[in-house]
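Moderator note: this is an archived Q&A kept for reference. The question asked for a predicted structure of one protein chain; the sequence and the answer are reproduced below.
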Amino acid sequence: MKTKAAILTAAHQPFEIVELDLDGPKEGEILIRYVTAGLCHSDLHLIDGDIEPRFPMVGGHEGAGVVEEVGPGVTKVAPGDHVVCSFIPSCGHCRYCSTGRQSLCDLGAGIAVGCMPDQTFRMRLDGEDVGGMCMLGTFSQYGTISQDSVVKIDPSIPLEVAVLTGCGVPTGWGTAVYAGGVRPGDTVVIYGIGGVGINSVQGAVHAGAKNVVVVDPVAFKRDTAMKMGATHAFADAEEAQQAVVEMTRGQGADQALITVGTVDSAVVTAAFETVGKGGTVVITGLANPGLLNIQLPSGLLTLFEKSVKGALFGSSNPQYDIVRMLDLYQAGQIKLDELITQRYRLDQINQGYQDLQDGKNIRGVLVHEH
């Protein structure tokens, strides 16, 4: 069949809208009709060259839609089911899935190539194989993807809202609750309030943090964080650190969560200096994997027993936590509707990412036309 999609053909180039040939599902695969996709900063890393994927590639790794067809051996879903895509697939039986660390599933090795688990492709442009971001490519009207990349959800939940749980919501929430281990009474500092950071705010609030301090140069994002439960908001890290010293009587923060779009040494240093003894720094934002951008005093690491750790997908288990986030949403304990700043059509994809870069969006959502 044919599908209209937004693809990247090289770094430092905008998305192009093209028509692709799409093969149907094979063993363990499904055909999905994407209804909506989230515009996440991670796709910008393909454009700016921080992450080097295999081109050409259909963008988009936050997606939700309806199962149209299933291949042989598919047991998780059936035609007509509503699903949210997980940007990290989970096979359920590798070393990491079997020990409750689905965010590290071995199938994730293919997310920068965009192929299926069997190393082949289902999309083509003029006979050339085209990959999908994170084995998905949600900036396409249709996709053939692995059943290990989807989570069945309650059909009563609007897909435009549910889509946010495919990346930003569990990544941010889990950064605070799972990777950060936020406890009642803690002081948490969150650097960068986008689609991930805003949900770190929600996670920290849900976990009972006393002080939820956000740092972002954009006033709109600081104001949104305050509406989501943040207690203090600052435009720069130094001002935030001074306030944390005062509010903790010199003890420092318990956690510093780095959810900026692109991580650099300055934000890591600021976070390390802001946490007190026994404090934890969690790095969830991305940077070029080959870039050496952390330099910290090992003496303080030892003497103050500070921890610096990374978190992928917020150390969440997508098969469980995507449904859990939606359960919390239905219970009124986390907000999703309020995260959507703007909606776009497929042909507005480049404008959507420009708005993201300009700090206008918490989360932009692409709504497919069929």
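Archived answer notes: The first strand starts at residue 2 and ends at 8.
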